[in-house]
Design goal:
It is built from one helix and 45 strands. It is mostly beta strands and about 425 residues long. A three-stranded antiparallel sheet has the order 1-6-5, with no helix packed on it. Strands 2-3-4 form a three-stranded antiparallel sheet, with no helix packed on it. Among the domains are: about 5-90, no CATH class; about 230-270, no CATH class; about 365-430, no CATH class. This is EGF-like domain-containing protein.
């Protein structure tokens, strides 16, 4: 910035009340670049009208090819009829915006675009003011897209021009503006609807409170209550009957030599002398008891009794005609129905002949071979088949589930439903079924 005495390169003359400015330069053949910040490109016959006294010349000199900067002149003092002093300063070319530090940055005024910002933007509706200064393309507001910004973002996308992908899970909807997830599918919550409802809440975004009892679970989807594993009945207050397990006791156990199974997990509870997932394996040598989880303390010349752990000398058979010792096979030849066998003929069995079968006829058929477990008839259970199936169950090993109403009894053998009024006057329920 500064004042210069006119020296050949710029001449202003009086034309009416205005000054006529003429300019020429040795740089007239060069393009105006940033390195020529303080230069200008004018042909010798270019001119501009400058209003009288300290006004800015318009700057529309012919022949100009400006890319970054141009130069304007301010006539500030008349020296004589034809001579005067002037001030000059730099301004940014069309298509550039001057920053606070005096540098020029490519840009246009709002609503303009083009090489020299000579074209008008045509962005309306859901678009930011202005447009791309080079292409004129509109920038849509968040949630909108399309050349005219009049289309809502498709599902799964959000943001300006719908350029960002949603992160929502489990069929949740996504806000087209900010991408926030709306957990519309019941049972889910969290920032991205990726977390299951806790045990006390249910519904959309887990907003509802469960009202289930202490032995009940709450569905995180609809809030319905169901019995926890091991419980059944009204208010889930009853334990599962034998050989039933799981939520509401809906599953059946498959156990051989067992008194039942765990009501929660369904794991078989083996009788003494047996082990395995289905309690169908006899204790191996050196173990005894329920599940064969105890260790025998017998010598090498003794055999461990798998039920009690009693140490017994080999081939010690009962007297009084119950068995004869066979030293060749190191076993006893038992008489019928001894050692809990179901066979009428004599059989060879290891160790010794135990007491005669003690099952409670006529509820049993006979003892299971090599076992103290009775083989019960339908409708009966227990070690000696002396216990009827628990109410609500019937049939073989009490596996059947009755479908009787609250005012009916279920027959433990057939599963038939009997009215309570009828059952009261019957002296023998079995006799009428």
């Amino acid at each position: 910035m500064g004042f210069r005495r006119l020296v050949g390169s710029f001449v202003c003359g009086i034309y009416g009340i205005n000054l006529i400015c003429f300019a020429w330069s040795e740089l007239a053949s060069k393009n105006c670049q940033s390195s020529y910040k303080y230069s200008y490109i004018f042909q010798y016959d270019s001119y501009a009208a400058c209003p009288y006294n300290e006004q800015v010349c318009n700057g529309w000199f012919l022949g100009r090819r400006c890319t970054t900067y141009t130069k304007y002149y301010r006539c500030v003092k008349k020296m004589s009829r034809v001579d005067f002093a002037y001030q000059y300063f730099d301004v940014c070319c069309p298509g550039y915006i001057e920053l606070n530090n005096g540098t020029c940055l490519r840009g246009c005024a709002e609503g303009k675009y083009g090489t020299e910002c000579e074209r008008d933007c045509n962005c309306q509706g859901h678009a930011y003011p202005g447009c791309d200064i080079d292409t004129g393309n509109c920038t849509c507001l968040p949630g909108w897209t399309g050349s005219d910004c009049n289309k809502v973002c498709p599902n799964g996308w959000f943001g300006s021009n719908c350029s960002s992908e949603c992160l929502c899970k489990n069929n949740a909807t996504c806000s087209p503006i900010g991408g926030a997830c709306n957990c519309t599918t019941p049972g889910w919550t969290g920032q991205f609807c990726q977390e299951e409802c806790n045990s006390t809440r249910f519904g959309r975004n887990c907003q509802e409170n469960c009202t289930c009892g202490v032995n009940e679970t709450c569905s995180r989807f609809d809030g319905l209550c169901a019995c926890i594993a091991g419980k059944t009945g009204v208010n889930c207050s009853e334990d599962c009957p034998a050989y039933r397990f799981g939520p509401n006791c809906t599953n059946s156990c498959s156990c051989a030599h067992s008194t039942g199974c765990d009501a929660v997990t369904g794991k078989c509870i083996c009788d003494v002398g047996y082990t395995g997932e289905q309690c169908n394996e006899v204790c191996s040598s050196g173990t005894y008891g329920a599940g064969c989880n105890q260790t025998c303390n017998c010598t090498g010349a003794e055999v461990c009794e798998p039920d009690t752990g009693e140490c017994i000398s080999r081939c010690v058979c009962h007297e009084e005609g119950t068995a004869n010792c066979n030293s060749l096979y190191d076993s006893c030849r038992c008489l019928p129905y001894h050692n809990h066998t179901c066979h009428d003929e004599n059989v060879f069995l290891k160790e010794r002949c135990r007491d005669v079968c003690e099952c409670s006829s006529p509820t049993d058929t006979c003892c299971v071979s090599n076992s103290s477990m009775c083989q019960c008839k339908d409708g009966w259970t227990g070690r000696k088949c002396s216990t009827a199936c628990p109410q609500g169950t019937f049939g073989r090993k009490c596996y059947g589930i009755c479908n009787c109403s609250a005012d009916e009894l279920c027959h433990h053998v057939s599963g038939n439903c009997i009215s309570l009024d009828t059952a009261v006057v019957c002296a023998n329920l079995d006799a009428i079924l």
